[in-house]
Design a protein that fits this description.
The structure holds two protein chains of two kinds. By secondary structure, chain A is of the alpha/beta class. Chain A has ten helices and ten strands. Chain A folds into two domains: 180 residues, Rossmann fold (3-Layer(aba) Sandwich), CATH 3.40.50.300; 67 residues. Helix content of chain B is 34%, strand content 27%. The two termini of chain B are 35 Å apart. The chains are: A alpha/beta, B alpha/beta. Chain A: It comes from Thalassospira alkalitolerans.
Chain lengths: 260, 234
């Protein structure tokens, strides 16, 4: 983590209602450059709703999401124009979905999946794009000779790594991850975790990672927020929250893990 | 000798919400000082809270009340109220912790795991790995294992990887949780030498040592945690 104290992202009093039903409520936090924030909680606790609202995919009922843009300083992501928001989402931000198929285009090659994001920010030189795509395949440990293959010919773990390459090629500063290791078998998970941890460190990425896997949260995140019923019921230093949980629900969550 | 850490009037209780919200008081009124160049043994019988106290010093456990002040970055930081960012920075640059458990991502080679704290401090990768190699050699981890994940190692080998990782950076404060448990005589001697070297360079050390011989060999004093147990003076 860098010593930069200026928040990259500031979420204030965010609430998302679905009619009368609470998606998430009164959530506030700051995120600094290079900082990894884990959001844990059971299914239906509001983790994914919160992630969608922060990442400009679903306007919240109430509250403010501010982002420190490279050019214009701090901006409210729901107050800027649609065009500015689109640009932000495909350059400075990245979104890694649980199901790689949601984040990839399955009917174009691996190389095109990576190159597409570069073209979206104005890169037009075919040779450069292809070289960058090949380089990123290497970084996520996929053989460069697979550049022209369709993602559908890849294993689940490879698809997830390809999705990560597609997201990181534009050098984003903030990455949203929704259960990035979910649905992968444990040997593949370990490889992905190691890869993610290295990339986060080397690229100084700020990350918000939603997971129900406390081991993943422990290994990747600096800070943790525990959600229940749409609210953040406990937050703090990751190992403090997991090893000395204060809230009844966090204690239940931690004590429910099977020991090796 | 300068003051590096002081604990003032600290209390700790655990409330177990999942078990009828029973509250278990552990400590009250704890006062503790640690100076550079000393090695203080935390003592008390098994279950008396030595590890709990050490975890509180590392801010792994919270305190119910009181303050724990750590001399970090030229000033005093109260880790019972500090932000997560400040605590992580304190752990990175000021306080090392050798725990009994190795918690690492599978697949990462031993050499990387040992070198990591030094690289995080800004040391060049090659220099950090060179120092990691020296420590692993001193601790008799065979070179053929250095590129493997320590998760496949024996308990004693994992313990020595933990020690190498804990001693690679010259932290001003070090916490050692049974660093010589499960080690043979030769490796135990190496760890004692590492502790002595740390003391000589001015580190302030607090440790839990399971045997008297180790304690007598390296410690300059002791601190009996049972004297601050709740009800100890009734």
């Amino acid at each position: 983590m860098t010593q930069n104290n200026t928040p990259l992202l500031r979420v204030s009093d965010l609430t998302m209602m679905y009619g009368d039903r609470v998606g998430c409520r009164n959530v506030s936090f700051d995120l600094r450059p290079g900082e990894v924030l884990g959001i844990v909680g059971e299914s239906g606790s509001g983790k994914s709703t919160l992630l969608r609202s922060i990442s400009a995919q679903q306007e919240p009922t109430k509250g403010v999401v501010e982002y420190h843009t490279r050019i214009d300083g701090i901006r409210d992501v729901y107050q800027i124009s649609e065009a500015q928001r689109r640009l932000l989402m495909r350059t400075d931000w990245a979104f890694v979905h649980q199901n790689a198929r949601d984040g990839l285009r399955m009917n174009v090659s691996a190389g095109a999946n990576i190159g597409e994001r570069l073209m979206a920010v104005g890169d037009r030189h075919y040779g450069n794009i292809r070289a960058a795509a090949g380089n990123w395949l290497g970084k996520v440990e996929i053989a460069e000779e697979r550049l022209d293959d369709l993602p559908s010919t890849f294993s689940g773990g490879m698809q997830q790594r390809l999705q990560i390459a597609r997201n990181l090629v534009t050098s984003p500063r903030l990455v949203f991850m929704d259960e990035p290791t979910g649905g992968l078998d444990v040997s593949v998970q370990a490889r992905l975790l190691d890869l993610l941890r290295g990339l986060v460190h080397d690229l100084n990425l700020a990350v918000i990672i939603v997971t129900h896997d406390l081991a993943v949260a422990r290994l990747l995140s600096h800070r943790l927020m525990v959600m229940q019923g749409g609210a953040v019921i406990e937050s703090g230093l990751t190992d403090q929250v997991l090893d000395d949980p204060q809230h009844a629900y966090t204690q239940l969550l931690v004590s429910s893990i099977l020991q090796n | 000798m300068s003051d590096m850490l002081h604990v003032e009037n600290v209390a700790k209780a655990f409330t177990l919400h999942t078990q009828g919200s029973v509250t278990i008081p552990v400590f009250e009124g704890v006062e503790f000082h640690l100076n550079s160049g000393e090695c203080i043994a935390l003592t008390g019988e098994s279950g008396s809270g030595k590890s709990t106290f050490m975890r509180m010093l590392y801010a792994n456990y919270t305190c119910s009340s009181g303050s724990i002040n750590v001399f970090h970055d030229g000033t005093w930081l109260d880790i019972t109220t500090a932000s997560p960012h400040a605590i992580l920075d304190m752990r990175k640059r000021t306080m090392g912790y050798v725990s009994q458990f190795l918690r690492v991502i599978p697949r990462v080679p031993t050499l990387e795991i040992v070198a990591e704290p030094l690289i995080a401090l800004g040391t060049a990768r090659d220099a950090a790995k060179e120092k990691a190699r020296d420590l692993l050699t001193r601790l008799r981890i065979p070179e053929r294992l250095w590129q493997l994940s320590p998760l496949t190692f024996s308990g004693g080998e994992q313990q020595r990887v933990n020690i190498a990782r804990g001693f690679i950076a010259d932290y001003p404060i070090m916490l050692l949780d049974e660093p010589t448990a499960s080690l043979d005589v030769q490796n135990r001697a190496t760890v004692l030498a590492l502790i002595d070297e740390a003391k000589l360079r001015g580190a302030a050390i607090a440790g839990i040592f399971h045997d008297h011989d180790t304690r007598d060999a390296v410690c300059t004093g002791s601190f009996d945690v049972t004297s601050f147990k709740v009800g100890a003076n009734d």
